[in-house]
Write a structure and sequence with these properties.
binds zinc ion, five-stranded mixed β-sheet, eight-stranded mixed β-sheet
Length: about 650
């Protein structure tokens, strides 16, 4: 008999007839495996379980336990969607339908838009077809026949795809019910396995992503192996939506973006402005405490300066256009670095002045394309908590340690306890590509790894990820629901000191070039504020809350005592708001809850007599009566403990 050898992952070898399928191999191993099997890996390639093995093969049978099978499973779910749509809307023209991160999509051309009701019907039809356990069958056709098949069916997009993509004389197809797809596969054996899915949305997309092409409707679905995974995903989505800063910003009256002024430009309303003041006060004080000097630099400077820095070469695409003043071109600043360099360069520096650390809450303007703008996270004007350090080589490790320590203090202070660190280094195989000498890079990378090792901070080392002018450390925080956000950066620069001819007089009396480090901790005030809103879902901790206490009189009769409570709170330095509207107490409590004010101090006759307040906490609910001075002391200790790193 003509046989082949099949090598299994545990090293066992099976001698089987040529043409045996992975499904048959699985059955020989165990009935359980045969039931769970979704797809196979043969000599490294994923193939259908029904595909005959023609040669000696190293074979793995994949089940839901193997992450690689999830994409195949989702791709099959996309086919199930197309099959269901064809049952209900036979006139649609088919586009493409790949698996994606959380599920799949398929795109269709249809005159009328798919409505939410359509999605419900389609999803029900998908469940019906899944229950019928239709096989996903693979067929081979000659290219010409394939084109003819789609032409007869009037599927122009598919004809186009076969014309362009089919390279071999035989073209592979998959059928699921009435649906026939020109598709390389592989697929899971049948539709019966697809259980945990949900159609999510419809979005427009140009055919092949090219403007001017017909507008397709993409139906997106979420899809997982288990109902539990799907529910988990849907809950996370709902939670992220609940926390979305673009929704909470206007609801809590923190900020707005106004079409009349232009996209990507932020208006800080009084409450957001108050949070910003608290953030900035903390930042400035902490910079001074840590030996930085605060500076301010112009927003517009000569275009020539940006030629010296090199930004007009490699950064033009991200800059606003120049402005002409008295026949000279001026540039709105996209970065603060050249400004800080000019301050360093304003006179000859001695080694005694180093390390020279200058910090600025520096507002910059960058031309971000309208398609990528996103609330406070991607904007066109923003304020960086930017600093530049000029130091000697010997001072470098100490400075890096100072930056990392400061970054961690920011995280702790603002309520984050989980973070990830990445170190971007040079590509050792491409040393030509970089500014700075090999020796400088080695020294800098050693300073970065040495500091992180000494501080006991785990990090991901990423060779080849550094930009041309120097290695860097990035700190990503993980928020309350585990999402990572890029935050602090400590970036070396071997380029600018040279371009600007920076120098200092060393201990030996001769001139040396300082080492330069760029450093931002929040990244920008806007971005960090957006992250804070989402992390806290708008319920800021006491020390950051724009209104800390709402004083709520039970009725107009007690407004005098309520006023007294509010003014005592204010003179003790707390941000109190007296809600003396002629409304029912319940309505006032509800409004304070919606505004996510940390504390409510409710006052009526009993409280006025005993000089107490009835305390209610946002989230914790009723805390009972408390003497006014004791309440003030509670607030003081909570607020102080929140603001110290
Ligand atoms: Zn396909
Ligand atoms: Zn910089």
């Amino acid at each position: 008999m003509d046989t082949i050898q099949v090598t299994l992952p545990n090293g066992a070898i099976q001698e089987v007839p040529r043409g045996t399928t992975p499904a048959e191999v699985a059955r020989k191993i165990s009935q359980g495996l045969a039931r769970e099997a979704l797809v196979a890996r043969a000599n490294g390639d994923l193939i259908d379980l029904s595909r005959p093995l023609e040669q000696d093969t190293s074979l793995t049978i994949l089940t839901a336990k193997d992450p690689d099978s999830l994409q195949v499973y989702r791709h099959s779910a996309a086919h199930l969607l197309a099959a269901a749509v064809l049952e209900l809307f036979p006139e649609v023209k088919l586009g493409i339908g790949p698996p994606i991160d959380s599920g799949f999509f398929y795109e269709f051309l249809r005159e009328q838009p798919f409505t939410p009701e359509d999605l419900e019907r389609i999803e029900a039809k998908m469940r019906e077809l899944a229950a019928r356990d239709l096989p996903n069958e693979r067929k081979l056709l000659p290219k010409a026949e394939a084109i003819e098949l789609y032409r007869k069916w009037n599927q122009g997009f598919k004809c186009e795809l076969v014309e362009e993509k089919a390279v071999e004389p035989m073209v592979s197809f998959y059928t699921t019910g009435k649906f026939i797809d020109f598709c390389r596969g592989p697929h899971i054996p049948d539709t019966g396995r697809i259980k945990a899915f949900k159609l999510m949305s419809v979005a427009g997309a140009y055919w092949k992503g090219q403007e001017g092409n017909p507008q397709m409707q993409r139906i997106y679905g979420a899809c997982f192996f288990t109902k539990a995974d799907l529910d988990d995903y849907l809950n996370k989505l709902a939670e992220a939506k609940r926390r979305d800063h673009r929704k909470l910003g206007p609801e809590l009256d923190l900020f707005s973006i106004q079409e009349e002024a232009g996209p990507g430009l932020i208006f800080w309303h009084p409450k957001g402005g108050l949070v910003r003041k608290i953030m900035e006060d903390w930042s400035r004080d902490e910079h001074l405490r840590r030996g930085y000097q605060l500076v301010y630099t112009p927003h517009v400077m000569r275009l020539d300066l940006w030629k010296t820095s090199g930004h007009t070469n490699f950064y033009t695409d991200n800059m606003f256009g120049p402005v002409e003043v008295e026949k000279a071109d001026y540039q709105l600043k996209p970065m603060n670095c050249p400004g800080h360099i000019l301050i360093f360069k304003s006179r000859l520096r001695s080694y005694r002045e180093l390390p020279y650390r200058v910090a600025e809450l520096g507002t910059v303007y960058r031309y971000e394309r309208s398609g990528v703008l996103h609330g406070l996270l991607r904007v066109r004007g923003f304020t960086q908590d930017d600093a530049h350090i000029f130091c000697t080589r010997e001072q470098l490790e100490g400075e890096i340690q100072g930056c990392v320590d400061f970054a961690l203090a920011v995280l702790r202070t603002f309520g984050f306890n989980r973070f990830e660190v990445e170190l971007s280094a040079r590509d050792p195989n491409d040393p030509e590509h970089y500014a700075g000498t090999v020796d400088e890079w080695e020294h800098a990378e050693k300073a970065l790894t040495g500091t992180l090792d000494r501080m006991g901070i785990p990090y991901k080392y990423m060779p080849g990820e550094a930009v041309f002018y120097g290695p860097k450390i990035d700190v990503k925080l993980l928020d309350a629901i585990g999402r990572p956000w890029q935050l602090s950066t400590v970036q070396f620069d071997f380029n600018l000191p040279r371009r600007f001819g920076l120098e200092y007089v060393g201990e030996d009396g001769s001139r040396h070039q300082p080492v330069m480090v760029h450093r931002a901790l929040w990244g920008s005030v806007e971005r960090f504020f957006g992250v804070l809103i989402e992390h806290y879902a708008g319920a800021f901790p006491l020390w950051l809350a724009p209104v800390q206490v709402a004083v709520l009189p039970v009725s107009g009769k007690f407004s005098e005592y309520a006023q007294q409570v509010a003014s005592e709170l204010k003179s003790a330095g707390f941000r109190a708001h007296l809600d003396d509207r002629n409304e029912k107490l319940q309505a006032k409590i509800r409004d304070s809850e919606i505004q996510k004010i940390p504390y409510m101090a409710i006052v009526g006759g009993k409280e006025a007599e005993a000089r107490t307040v009835s305390v209610r906490h946002h989230g914790k609910g009723d805390l009972g009566p408390r003497g006014l001075s004791a309440f003030l002391a509670d607030l003081r200790s909570e607020s102080e403990s929140g603001a110290t790193a």
